[in-house]
Amino acid sequence: MSGITAPADTPRGEARDGVRVAHRQHWGWWILVAFVVLCTAALVKMLLTNDNLQWHVVGEYLFTRRILQGLLTTLALTVLAMVLGTLLGVLTAVMRLSPIRVLSSVAWAYTWFFRGTPLLVQIIFWYNLAALFPTIDIGIPLTGPVLFSADANTVITPFVAAMLGLALNEGAYMSEIVRGGILSVDQGQSEAGAALGMRGGRIMRRIVLPQAMRVIVPPTGNQAIGMLKSTALVSVTSTAELLYTTQQVYNQTFQTIPLLIVASLWYLVVTSVLSVIQYYIERRYARGGRRELPPTPWQRFQRGVANVRGRM
User: Fold this and answer.
1) Helix (H) or strand (E) holding 138
2) Angle at 299 between CA 310 and CA 209, to 5 degrees
3) Could you tell me which residue ranges the ABC transmembrane type-1 domain spans (predicted)?
4) How far apart (Å, rounded) are the C-alpha atoms in residues 56 and 9?
5) Disulfide check for 122: which of 20, 73, 89, 165 has CB 3.0–4.6 Å away?
6) Residue 290 phi, psi (nearest 5)
């Protein structure tokens, strides 16, 4: 009689009924584990014993008012740029898939330009927009009267320039993410909606986009985390975000490394929070799929406690 074997779709080392299947470990794995443990221990020792890191200075500035104000500006830029970029990305993706040649061509040109030029260049361009357009005039294009006119330096503040640069660049990437999610939905879903008498816009809102969210959410979460870190680029426009505020402080105190550690710690904290939010949003939109949802950290903790109690 042969031993217990796990089904083909069961993770390696586990059986479907919870029976643990033993596998012989290769000796090379033990060497790799020992090397990783030694490197980790050396890194931890360096972080704890290197006096040049000045952890007491890090603790002194970690919750200062200036740093927290810079953090709030960073969060505001991240949220505004992601919201505007996502809305613009959805609109551009729908235009790109439109059968109307003018709309699809304009959407393609927008995506091509903003994906093809560096984000830093775009931010600097918006910051210096007044050199190209001293005044901003809004009205009917070409023939219509001017309805609104204002000085460009008054309207395009450093914060607005940073937000425009981040949002327009993000919209180009989000358009490709949304377009890929829409194309992942079977064409028969749209045909079924049309057979029920639904119009194209309603089919997109009620049928296509909800199903496409399974494909859209994971890369969107990665884009949000990338956006948080991209806000550091707007320091070139003197926007008082986290990195620029940190630079102002260490230019006065000459404690460069500790202040950079402060900024890095806050980026890591916010990135970790965003990763947790992304994890649970992905679980929500993965419901009803073919794959079984993995347990949450809290569910794993509960199972661990139950296993310990069962052995007692």
Assistant:
1) strand 135-139
2) 155
3) 71-278
4) 51
5) 165
6) -75, -30
Tokens of 16: 């479907």
**Is the separation of the CB atoms in 231 and 120 below 8 Å?**
no
Distances (CA, A) of 117 to 72, 112, 165, 169, 170: 28, 9, 11, 9, 12
**Angle of helix 209-230 versus helix 65-96 axis, rounded to 10:** 140
> Contact 250/260 with Cβ under 8 angstroms?
yes
Amino acid sitting at position 146: V
Question: In 198-296, where does DSSP find H-type helix?
Answer: 200-203, 209-230, 242-253, 256-286
Tokens (6 digits) for 179: 């377009």
Residue 244 CA to residue 234 CA, distance in Å, equals: 8
Residue type, 294: P
- Cα–Cα distance, 161 to 124 (Å, whole number): 8
The pTM for the full model equals 0.80
Angle 131-137-142 from CA coordinates, rounded to 5°? 110
How buried is residue 247: exposed, middle or buried, by Cβ count under 10 Å (0-12/13-18/19+)? middle
Q: How far is CA 183 from CA 18, 40, 90, 173, 272, in A?
A: 38, 44, 13, 16, 31
Instruction: Decide: 262 and 62 in contact? Cβ < 8 Å.
Output: yes
Please give the C-alpha separations between residue 214 and each of 86, 106, 271, 287, 291, in angstroms, as whole numbers. 16, 27, 21, 9, 12
Residue extents of the structural domains in the chain: 1-46, 58-307
Give the pLDDT confidence of 44-90 residue by residue, as tens digits: 999 888 888 889 999 999 999 999 999 999 999 999 999 999 999 99
Confidence check: pLDDT of 6 > 60: no
